[in-house]
Design a protein that fits this description.
Keywords: Repeat, WD repeat. This is WD40 repeat domain-containing protein. Pfam families: ANAPC4_WD40, WD40. InterPro entries: Apc4-like_WD40_dom (IPR024977), PQQ_b-propeller_rpt (IPR018391), WD40/YVTN_repeat-like_dom_sf (IPR015943), WD40_repeat_CS (IPR019775), WD40_repeat_dom_sf (IPR036322), WD40_rpt (IPR001680). The chain has 626 residues and is an all-beta fold. The protein folds into two domains: 283 residues, 7 Propeller (Methylamine Dehydrogenase, Chain H), CATH 2.130.10; 309 residues, Methylamine Dehydrogenase, Chain H. Helix content is 1%, strand content 55%. The strands form 14 sheets. The chain has a five-stranded mixed sheet, with helices on one face. Strands 1-2-3-4 form a four-stranded antiparallel sheet, with no helix packed on it. Strands 5-6-7-8 form a four-stranded antiparallel sheet, with no helix packed on it. A hairpin with a 3-residue loop joins strand 10 and strand 11.
């Protein structure tokens, strides 16, 4: 397993903040990040958080938890499949001590929580299992339960009841070592968050439909909070259990009383409400910038990160220009046909200040640039104007054109058609049973890839499944309107020929499954001749792979693709420049252009870093023309 190797950001994280945990005394805050680190902050003066310690894992850090009995002990869990237990010095004059490493899970560890004794720790993983450990000695104790899909969250009540929640829609409550204290509740969709109240009398469950259920210890419904049109992700309770803070995928923090009354709402495009934490009158939240956010109980901002991260999420190409959409809301416009410096990096770069928060997808047509955001809006730069759509109810990970319409895919599984000239919504429909992760145009329709494991083809109103994967589909690409390829969390790429001349008639033929690396495949691209295409795929294992497809030799697909190059973090996105060139971006900020050589083999032709583009760019705070 390769380790993340990003330049250290002296002021905080070098990638988005995935999780926050306030120590119960309100004196320390731990934050976790995609950059493979957990940071410990001194927040005795909450208006001026001071960085004390930097803890490292090999992969992104998903969550952390402070020990309830020993305030100097912190557990962190990671996509490197381990949990680390640290003893944290009270100041920066000494180094943290690694107490133990818990390594038994076969997939990412998503969440951890301590038993009340401060010795035992519960860990839950994407392998579906919940495990119990003596965290101080590193001894594995037992299995606590299992889910049929990824286990996403764990919360331990003050009396030792363990609640787990998963993508299988199951919420389970168990007492380790007892068969009698067990309750199970099933939902129709994924559950990503759960949190016991401090009294242990109420369990809050964050639902994928935007609601939060308040349940008894036997999982009987007390009340449902109508939070958002987008998925609810995380819940934090006030210390007296009279109020809750809920983070949702509409990009907002929602403040409720325990009896169901909404009191405040905080919308800040920098905030990543994947995680919230509450202690001593402070509320912490995750961020797409370089550190956590701190708020008062009334939602007033106390402290916020100062430095954006330019992690690339989206690429689009048009007329010799490459557009790179970033976590910062900046879109870098790179002139690929212009001159380059001695490193090969383009000299002509513009930084377009498109949004205040992450740009998740891009589309370009006729000199107009469209960016879809985590906050659920589409922003257009056209004809010297900047136009913004209404809030579409969820983050927008995908965009494409279909005829005269601009189509956005949402986290809620919807396809939304917009007028490109005004960004007014002209139609919308529920098309997938999960987030529409990727869209790409065809001559007579468009393809969509989603977390419901499917790749579909058609128009807005009529869609047919082309094929299915064994897990969520991250991306789909097309070559010459005749060949499509998709990348999946099931570690494979599928490629097939597309036939048919219109929606309802599109079909897939000669579909092959290409065995990828032993981790999720995030992005995909196609090069060359549709009769003998080259497939590119980028993985969370940091590798960029290539396959030459022979439609008549299916057995060749059993070999893993050729490794073209390795990045320092997972790969994020690809975009076709033309039939023989594909741009590829990684979350380490590296951008490469892969070309098909005279012998038909792909090779890396250009290679540069986004921090170099940012340093040389002409910034346009109000960028109105592409």
């Amino acid at each position: 397993m390769r380790s993340i190797d990003l330049p250290v950001n002296a002021t905080g994280h070098a990638a988005p903040v995935t999780h926050v945990a306030l120590r119960p005394d309100g004196q320390r805050l731990a934050s976790c990040s995609y950059d493979g680190t957990a940071l410990v902050w001194d927040i005795q003066n909450p208006a001026r958080p001071r960085l004390l310690h930097r803890l490292r894992h090999r992969r992104l850090v998903n969550a952390c938890a402070w020990n309830p009995a020993s305030p100097d002990v912190l557990a962190t869990c990671s996509a490197d499949k381990t949990v680390a237990v640290w003893r944290i010095p009270d100041d920066d004059s000494d180094q943290p001590d690694l107490v133990s490493v818990l390594a038994r899970h076969t997939d990412d560890v998503n969440s951890v929580d301590w038993m009340p004794d401060g010795e035992r720790l519960i860990c839950v993983s994407e392998d579906g299992r919940a495990t119990l450990w003596n965290a101080l000695t590193g001894a594995f104790l037992s299995e606590v339960g299992s889910h049929t899909a990824h286990c996403m969250a764990v919360s331990v009540g003050p009396d030792g009841l363990v609640a787990t929640a998963g993508e299988d829609g199951m919420v389970a409550v168990r007492r380790p070592g007892s068969d009698s204290d067990t309750a199970v509740r099933h939902y129709d969709s994924s559950i990503e968050g759960c949190a016991w109240s401090h009294s242990g009398k109420v369990l809050a469950v964050a639902r994928d439909d935007g609601r939060v259920d308040l349940l008894t210890g036997r999982l009987e419904l007390l009340r449902t909070l109508e939070v958002s049109a987008s998925a609810a992700r995380t819940v934090g309770w006030s210390e007296d259990d009279t109020s809750l803070v809920i983070g949702a995928y509409d990009g907002a923090l929602h403040f409720f009383t325990a009896d169901g009354r909404r009191t405040h709402r905080v919308q800040d495009a920098r905030v990543w409400p994947r995680s919230v934490s509450v202690a001593r009158g402070l509320i912490a939240a995750g961020s797409f910038w370089n550190g956590p956010h701190l708020y008062a109980p009334d939602g007033a901002e106390i402290a916020a990160p100062a430095v954006p991260n330019h992690g690339p999420n989206a690429l689009a190409a048009h007329d010799g220009q490459l557009f790179i959409g970033c976590d910062s809301g900046t879109v870098f416009a790179v002139d690929l046909d212009g001159t380059s410096d001695e490193t090969g990096a383009p000299r002509a770069v513009r930084a377009l200040a498109v949004a205040d928060g992450p740009v998740l997808s891009l589309a370009v047509r006729d000199g107009a640039l469209y960016a879809a955001t985590y906050s659920g809006q589409v922003i257009g730069l056209l004809d010297g104007r900047r136009i913004v759509s209404e809030q579409l109810g969820a983050p927008l990970p995908s965009l494409c054109f279909h005829g005269d319409a601009l189509v956005a895919g949402t986290y809620n599984g919807e396809l939304v058609a917009l007028d490109p000239r005004t960004l007014a919504v002209t139609a919308r429909r529920s098309a997938h049973g999960g987030s529409v992760k990727s869209l790409t145009s065809l001559p007579s329709g468009f393809l969509s890839a989603a977390t419901d494991h499917t790749v579909a083809a058609g128009d807005l109103h009529r869609r047919e499944t082309l094929w299915e994967h064994g897990n969520l589909v991250n991306a789909v690409a097309v070559l010459g309107g005749r060949v499509a390829a998709s990348a999946s969390r099931d570690h494979t790429v599928k490629v097939g020929r597309i036939t048919g001349d219109g929606p309802g008639a599109l079909r897939a033929e000669a579909v092959q499954t290409l065995l990828g690396p032993d981790e999720s495949v995030k992005c995909v691209g196609l090069l060359g001749d549709p009769d003998a295409p080259v497939v590119l795929a980028g993985s969370y294992d940091f590798g960029l792979y290539a396959w030459r497809v022979d439609w008549d030799a299916t057995a060749r697909t059993l070999s893993c693709g050729h490794l073209l190059t390795a990045f320092d973090q997972g790969l994020s996105c690809m975009a076709s420049l033309d039939g023989d060139n594909v741009a590829v971006a990684g979350w380490d900020g590296r951008i490469v252009v892969v070309t098909r050589g005279p012998d038909g083999e792909p090779r890396v032709r250009r290679d540069w870093r986004i921090e170099d583009l940012a340093a040389r760019s002409d910034r346009h705070e109000e960028a109105l023309a592409v």
